[in-house]
Design goal:
alpha+beta, ABC transporter transmembrane region fold, Cathepsin B, Chain A, Rossmann fold
Length: 1019
């Protein structure tokens, strides 16, 4: 090799940019340090290793972000060799090199093209003959034992037909490389080099058949150092294609140069160089991120020290210090956080359960979040701004601004108090010490009981914590009752006694008393309305989140049985009911109080006439009740039709691309228009009934007054004195007016009943996870399906029938079968989405039905068939609702083979996706869901056709990534490459397991279903 290439003069330059990939760099003496640097030769130089004497290096390829730069040492002798020189005819019997052509073969052109000098050697199926005898072989490389090979590959010195190059006198002419090998030179060349990769195991692991897995998923033997026994795990190994003359053989350091006789090596080296530089890019990117993190941490630590010094200076000049601050030994620990959570939860009337500390995935959560998760209630982060200590937002978990330790913030006597759970000491929060609290706090939401709830239980649940408002409401009602009697009594007394007697002074006094009573009544009415508004707000703030929590904790079967419109009505039903009742509750209280007081006055003045008034009220009430029921009948239909319209609009918008492809927009519009026209007709019916009720309200009051006058003028003549008559008439008028208000309010409230009927199923259904569920702890990955049977309806056929199999921890099990055989249903049973009619699913020997299924799924990564990401940024889609870092999201994207796609997006991880991921391809959408499943590093993975839209290379990356996790994998797949990589295959047919075993064993059974499925796919 020393005779090839040209020497490189590096005496005037400290560094040497390495060309490639058509150039080889040979260190013939001394050594050269190798660095990776940005392709623009700017930025930091990353040291990779030292190339010692005898190292042969292929120059870097274009494309990756970084390239290779050498820094020769003082005594280094470096040669630059063009690849085409390796196939130039060498010194034959005539004593000189004979030019064979600039491209090294008959093919000409690119040496890597199918017709080039490095791509085609010999003929398929021909034996490889060593032209120099057995002395080339050895324990690591024995040419004579290769036999036949399939991939065209001819050694240097042979033409395209497999015969040696010859002189016109028919004497063999050797290339310089063959000549060097014939003389025994070049046996210690090291083709590849070692590089630090921060502990990444790039070394392939040998398999049972002697082959090895290359670092990037290729397969083949090592190209160097295998027999040298270096033991270094940071050696980059060579990947050779099956069929090449090197495939299946091992080469030691002393025979590495023998590889150079096969031109196919160089294309593999170019590919390997690309993978190497890509790995270097990732390694350097991690180094840069770590440096940025260390820099940011240093800046943050410096700012914290400065803030601490500022607080010390402020305290030294007399700024008030907080009292009862937690001690440094207990602050920040899980016990302190749990004590704070218990204090806040007790104030919110929420039971607390101690969280698990056994290494389950939730152990990475904040202690407050972990406590909420184990106790079954939800939380929300709130921001403390302005004079927050004066606004009652309920019990809160706050944080000290200096060390981030949690503290209980409880409302008491018009402002918040900070509570130390350890000592029980309290101190009021004010303007002087509000800065000592962080502006972030956590609010707890009280969940509904885990049992069916009737309406009165919901009312009691929502009214908890409103004792003060109920007291103010009752007080206002009592005052209204007392003052409500003054108007009719004063009217009768003034008009019946004082006016005929010309008692001007008494008239003025009574008038002033009425004015004062009106002012007092207005004040207490304001108190009533304020109490009602506060109660409405508290009811919605308590009940609406509780409904959402209950809805999210219901089993998936609940959602499968209802349309989107019904679910939307159930989710927002409480808010809709509150809006309808917001203006009715105060009317009901005030009108009911006034009507009851005036009815008592009527009975005091004349029982007979009072009974007549009551009879008129009964008739009117019956009439209005009938009309209300009539309206309710159409109102129910209107609500059902509204849900149907909402569902239809949602499905139309979701399926708009399909409608456009089918040119069916007109049909979709026509279907919507028909239903909308029906809803308008129902609204008109309801409107006509309301108009009729309004007319009756306007007519019946004068009609009842006329009837009372006729009675007093006829049968009841003389029954009342003039003052008594005036008092009685005023009381009747006020009572009838209150009845008018009551009937109008009640009829408006009738619209609430259909809304509540839509919400009622949420309260009747039982949550999937209840208080008695057992915590699973950290799962090992063992799963067992034991005699599972399932049907979708009680009287329906069995979809699964006596299915049993077991999955060991870390095992890869593929479930295959024809469409409709029950594979997806089986997966839903395994993850607890449906419950079996018979049998059980066991995780680590524990029945899934008795476990906290949400806690089980938190330890699983699940990608269902046709799963779609939700709207938001790519980062939000990958990490979901949990607080994973940006680095963890990038790592998950890398495991899913999505990192390069994200880097090409306009805003990287912050690129916004539409709902359902419509702005990305099907394969990218699947990889997003896979990244979302892998970010937790779960112990168990469930994939239901999760890689059906991926190409082979991307699927290989996903397969290798999931193998790295050493997780239990249960995969439903049809693709042969996925199934054949499994440890075990479960074959299903018509809801039953018909075969189980290793893929290779099942293929030997030519009568089995698995063999038939594979045969169909190959054909």
């Amino acid at each position: 090799m020393g005779g090839l290439g040209t020497p490189v003069d590096h005496t005037t330059a400290r560094s040497l940019p390495l060309e490639g990939p058509q150039v080889l760099w040979l260190v013939t003496a001394g050594a050269m340090d190798l660095f990776a640097v940005d392709a623009g030769r700017q930025g930091h130089w990353h040291f990779l290793g030292r190339l010692e004497t005898g190292t042969l290096l292929l120059g870097p390829v274009d494309g990756p972000r970084h390239t290779l730069v050498g820094r020769p040492l003082q005594d280094c002798v470096l040669r630059r060799i063009q690849l085409r020189e390796l196939h130039r005819p060498g010194p034959g019997p005539y004593g000189a090199y004979e030019q064979y052509g600039e491209q090294g073969g008959h093919g000409g052109g690119d040496p890597y093209s199918p017709h080039g000098g490095y791509a085609q050697y010999g003929h398929p199926g021909e034996p490889y003959a060593d032209p120099y005898g057995p002395h080339h072989g050895g324990p690591d490389n024995t040419y004579g034992t290769y036999g036949t090979y399939d991939t065209p590959a001819t050694p240097a010195g042979y033409d395209a037909h497999g015969t040696p190059w010859t002189h016109p006198a028919h004497e063999p002419v050797l290339s310089p490389l063959d000549d060097a090998f014939a003389r025994g030179y070049g046996r210690s060349l090291r083709v590849l080099f070692e590089a630090p990769f921060d502990g990444q195991h790039l070394t392939p692991q040998p398999s049972g058949d002697g082959n090895t897995d290359a670092p990037d998923g290729g397969h083949g033997p090592s190209a160097a150092h295998d027999a040298a026994g270096t033991g270094d795990e940071n050696i980059l190994w060579m990947s050779m294609a099956p069929g090449s003359v090197q495939y299946g053989s091992a080469y030691g350091a002393d025979t590495a140069a023998d590889l150079l006789i096969d031109g196919a090596l160089w294309q593999d080296m170019v590919n390997q160089q690309t993978r190497l530089l890509s790995a270097l890019d990732r390694w350097i990117e991690r180094l840069e991120r770590a440096h940025e993190d260390r820099t940011a941490a240093g800046i943050q630590a410096g700012e914290a020290e400065r803030e601490s010094a500022d607080r010390a200076l402020l305290n030294s000049i007399g700024r008030p210090r907080r009292r009862g601050a937690p001690s440094g030994t207990a602050a920040g620990t899980d016990d302190a956080a749990l004590a704070v959570c218990r204090t806040v939860a007790a104030a919110a009337r929420i039971p607390v359960t101690d969280p698990d500390t056994g290494g389950a995935p939730e152990s990475r959560l904040d202690p407050v979040e972990r406590t909420a998760l184990s106790s079954g209630f939800r939380t929300r982060d709130v921001r403390l701004s302005g004079s927050w200590w004066r606004d009652n937002s309920g019990p809160l978990v706050g944080y000290w601004s200096d060390n981030g330790d949690p503290v209980a913030l409880l409302w008491r006597r018009g402002r918040y108090e900070a509570v130390d759970p350890a000592s029980g000491e309290r101190w009021r929060v004010g303007k002087d010490n509000a800065a000592e609290f962080d502006d972030r706090a956590v609010m707890f939401y009280r969940p509904l009981p885990d049992e069916p709830l009737p309406a009165w239980r919901l009312l009691l649940f929502s009214l908890r914590g409103t004792r003060t408002d109920l007291r103010n409401l009752a007080l206002g009602g009592l005052v209204a009752v007392g003052l409500g009697t003054l108007v009719p009594l004063a009217t009768g007394q003034v008009l019946g006694v004082y006016v005929p007697a010309a008692e001007n002074g008494l008239i003025v006094q009574v008038s002033l008393a009425l004015i004062v009573s009106a002012v007092v009544a207005a004040a207490f009415m304001l108190l009533q309305n304020t109490a009602i508004l506060r109660m409405e707000g508290r009811v919605e703030a308590t009940l609406q989140p509780a409904v959402w929590d209950r809805l999210l904790r219901l089993p998936t079967r609940f959602f499968a049985e209802r349309s989107t419109g019904e679910l939307a009505s159930a989710a927002m039903g409480i808010s809709s009911i509150r809006k309808v009742l917001s203006g009715i509750s105060s009317v009901l209280v005030q009108a009911g109080t006034v009507g009851a007081v005036n009815l008592v006055l009527l009975l005091l003045f004349s029982v007979e006439l009072a009974l007549v008034a009551v009879a008129m009220l009964v008739v009117i009430a019956a009439l209005f009740l009938g009309m209300g029921l009539w309206q309710l009948r159409w109102q129910r239909r209107l609500v059902v039709l509204g849900n149907k319209l909402n569902n239809q609009a949602f499905q139309t918008l979701r399926g708009l691309p399909k409608l456009r492809v089918a040119a069916a927009e007109s049909f979709a519009y026509a279907a919507w228009a028909r239903e909308f026209a029906r809803s308008r007709e129902l609204q008109q019916r309801v409107g006509r009934i309301k108009n009729l009720i309004t007319v009756l309200n306007a007519v019946y009051l004068p009609l009842c007054t006329l009837i009372m006058f006729m009675l007093l003028a006829g049968p009841a003549r003389g029954a009342l004195s003039p003052s008594g008559f005036l008092t009685f008439n005023t009381a009747v008028t006020m009572m009838l007016s209150s009845v008018t208000q009551l009937t109008g309010a009640l009829i408006s409230a009738a619209a609430v009943l259909p809304m509540f009927e839509q919400v009622r199923p949420v309260f009747r259904a039982l949550p999937e996870v209840r208080g008695g569920s057992t915590r699973p702890g950290a799962l090992s990955g063992a799963i067992e399906a034991r005699q599972l049977s399932f049907r979708y309806a009680e009287d329906g056929p069995l979809v699964l029938d006596d299915v049993s199999f077991r999955v060991e921890p870390g095992e890869f099990v593929a479930v295959v079968g024809a469409s409709g055989c029950g594979k997806s249903t089986l997966l839903r049973l395994l993850i607890g989405f449906d419950r079996p009619a018979f049998g059980e699913v066991l995780y680590d020997g524990q029945d899934l039905a008795a476990l906290d299924q949400a806690a089980v799924r938190r330890q699983c990564g699940v990608v269902l068939q046709n799963a779609q990401p939700f709207s938001g940024s790519v980062l939000d889609c990958i990490r979901g609702a949990e607080n994973f870092s940006l680095e963890e999201a990038w790592e998950a994207a890398r495991l899913a083979g999505l990192a390069e796609d994200i880097q090409r997006m306009p805003m990287g991880m912050h690129t916004v996706l539409s709902d359902g991921g419509g702005t990305v391809s099907g394969g990218q959408r699947q990889r997003l869901m896979i990244a979302q499943a892998l970010i937790r590093r779960p112990r168990i993975l469930f994939f239901d056709e999760a890689t059906s839209a991926l190409d082979n290379e991307t699927q290989r990356i996903v397969t290798e990534s999931t193998r790295e996790l050493r997780a239990t994998r249960v995969v439903i797949a049809h693709r042969l490459s996925t199934v054949m990589d499994a440890d075990r295959v479960v074959v299903m047919a018509e809801g039953r397991v018909v075969q189980q075993g290793r893929p290779a064993d099942l293929l030997t059974d030519t009568t089995g279903l698995f063999h038939e499925l594979v045969r169909r796919q190959i054909q």
